[in-house]
Amino acid sequence: QSALTQPASVSGSPGQSITISCTGTSSDVGGYNYVSWYQQHPGKAPKLMIYEVTNRPSGVSNRFSGSKSGNTASLTISGLQAEDEADYYCSSYTSSSTWVFGGGTKLTVL
Amino acid sequence: QLQLQESGSGLVKPSQTLSLICAVSGGSISSGGYSWSWIRQPPGKGLEWIGYIYHSGSTYYNPSLQSRVTISVDRSKNQFSLKLSSVTAADTAVYYCAREGMATINAFDIWGQGTMVTVSS
């Protein structure tokens, strides 16, 4: 299985909005609403930010939102804050009953 | 609050078998509705899903690692384990265990802190 495709880096200024894309195939992203997003700060374990495309776990800021169109899912962060600077990974369930991650996107808050 | 804690050898020689354990506390690994995964991250690189085991004992593995991976569960000790055989330097990574809430949250909602494994002679 191939990794999902994410941009290597994105950046934005405090208060702005950014969007990170995650492109797969009809066998993963396009075929299931089991896309999730994880935030990872240096030296820390990943943290679940979005599950099942659009849902936020309890405690996650509503500045984080998710969507999907066809084989591409997206994570949008609005009102950027310094603490949002981190690596972000998407993940999807696949038709082989396995999971696959994206390559990761480094978010820089300017 | 359920917690996961990885443990095992931090240094493994090439061609040998990597062995890790994930201890589950604050809940039972036998509870239905969850699967238990291993995920790794080579230094400076992205996340790679290794495989998971259902509470029933069924397992699914990353096709690229399937021939070398075994995940098993020890219900008496409330833990699950990873064995990766014939390791090379490419298997050097931080290894995480994680819980996935099948049919509820369908994502990895709880992670261990990770344990670094280095493959070197």
Which helices and strands occur, and which strands form pairs?
The complex is a heterodimer of chains A (110) and B (121).
Chain A: E1 9-12, E2 18-23, E3 35-40, E4 47-50, E5 64-69, E6 72-77, E7 86-93, E8 99-101, E9 105-109
Parallel strand pairs in A: 1-9
Antiparallel strand pairs in A: 2-6, 3-4, 3-7, 5-6, 7-8, 7-9
Chain B: E1 3-8, E2 11-12, E3 18-25, E4 35-41, E5 48-54, E6 59-61, E7 69-74, E8 79-84, E9 93-100, E10 108-111, E11 115-119
Parallel strand pairs in B: 2-11
Antiparallel strand pairs in B: 1-3, 3-8, 4-5, 4-9, 5-6, 7-8, 9-10, 9-11
Characterise the protein shown here.
The complex is a heterodimer of chains A (110) and B (121). Chain A is built from no helices and nine strands. With 110 residues, chain A is mostly beta strands. In chain A, a hairpin with a 5-residue loop joins strand 7 and strand 8. Chain A is globular, with a radius of gyration of 13 Å. The mean pLDDT of chain A is 97. Chain B is mainly beta. In chain B, strands 2, 4, 5, 6, 9, 10 and 11 form a seven-stranded mixed β-sheet that branches. The interface between A and B is medium-sized, with 25 and 24 residues.
